[in-house]
Amino acid sequence: MATAAQDMSGAASLPLDRDLFVSPPPRLSFEQVAALLERAYGIHPHDITALASERDANFRIDTDGGRFTLKVSNAAEPPAAVDLNSCVLNHINERAPDFPAPKIVRTVGGGFNTIVTDGTGKPSNVRLLTYLDGLPLGDAEISSPLVRSIGSALGRLSCILDDFDHPHKNIPILWDSTNVHRLAPLLDNVPDKGRRDVLKRHLRHFETHVRPTLGKRRRHIIHNDANPGNVLVNVRGTASFAGIFDFGDIVYAPAINELAVAATYLLARCDDVVSLISDLVSGYAGHAACTSEDLCIVPDLMTARFLTTILITHWRADLFPGNADYILRNNPGAWAGLERMDRMDRAGLTPQGIQQLTGQS
């Protein structure tokens, strides 16, 4: 009997980083963390707090000199991917030190990272980052000015990263929704046949109508995960963007996908898809080039992100049932978003309509 994945003709294998998602997060005691901080950074914490994470081990570090985030990468994370991430953060700091993203704290030896062996005996890369303050976007009231502010920040980030280069910038990742067709092997983890059929329909549409157009889009490294937990808001006066962190899903992809990913997470709290896109674009376009052809595919890229979230979270919840609640936290919203995209009236999303909507000439 054919499986749902086998029904998707020509489905590619999963990206190489699938090992990250089947490898459990590192396990370190607070005592190990404290010893590591003293040895590698000369820091003596007075409080250590474990933070929720999908595949890594993260800790908030409070010291007399300030607050930091300690990131212990999954043992399956390739060193090249860790270096890529570190170089992106360093590039942002060098190009735009005022941009609110985490900064790498160098080790006592001057390096970006160090190595620690966790309780299972596996070595992991460790980095210490500055801690960003602000209200999580998920706890903020959404408004047009706030959405435009987020769009503006993402446009500025696009400009900062436009000239970034790295020998391993093309590392494939599962969360690259512009390659969602590669996740077809995960269809069998979706238990409901009716829902699997919906996903298969959207995957076929992407493969046939969207993927062939992506080669024409401007590309560079993007953050790729502007979700309500990773974006911070300044609520003094008119709410505005205050920072973005967790660069763990960076990917070399069409630049416009940065907006599409952000839009998927904002959609649940906005009444109109087109107005949401318009607000994001009006901020983004003040800093970064954005063509009407780019904007016409934003709804399809939003759909691709919803598909990516659904397929990966169902799969990982099966792998780690003890952490299923955390893994599936965005799954209901992704299904709801997918249904909204199905109902969306795209009549005005022609190149001419987009120009009129966003005030571009």
Description of the structure:
This protein has helices at 4-7, 18-22, 30-41, 79-95, 144-161, 193-210, 257-267, 273-284, 292-296, 298-319, 324-327, 331-343, 351-358; strands at residues 47-51, 57-63, 66-72, 104-105, 114-117, 123-130, 135-136, 219-222, 231-234, 240-244, 251-254. The protein has 361 residues and is of the alpha+beta class. It has 2 domains: 4-16 and 135-356, Alpha-Beta Complex (Aminoglycoside 3'-phosphotransferase, Chain: A, domain 2); 26-130, Phosphorylase Kinase, domain 1, CATH 3.30.200.20. Strands 1, 2, 3, 4, 5 and 6 form a 6-stranded antiparallel beta sheet that branches. Strands 7-9-10 form a 3-stranded antiparallel beta sheet, with helices on one face. Strand 2 (57-63) and strand 3 (66-72) form a beta hairpin. The chain is globular and about 60 Å long. The model has no long low-confidence stretch (mean pLDDT 90).
Model regions low in confidence, pLDDT < 50 over at least 5 residues: none
Question: What is the helix/strand order?
Answer: HHHEEEHEEEEHHEEEEHHHHHHH
Q: Give the strand tally.
A: 11
Q: Could you estimate the helical fraction of the residues in percent?
A: 40-55%
The general outline is: globular
CATH superfamily of the largest domain: Aminoglycoside phosphotransferase (APH), C-terminal lobe
CATH architecture of the largest domain: Alpha-Beta Complex
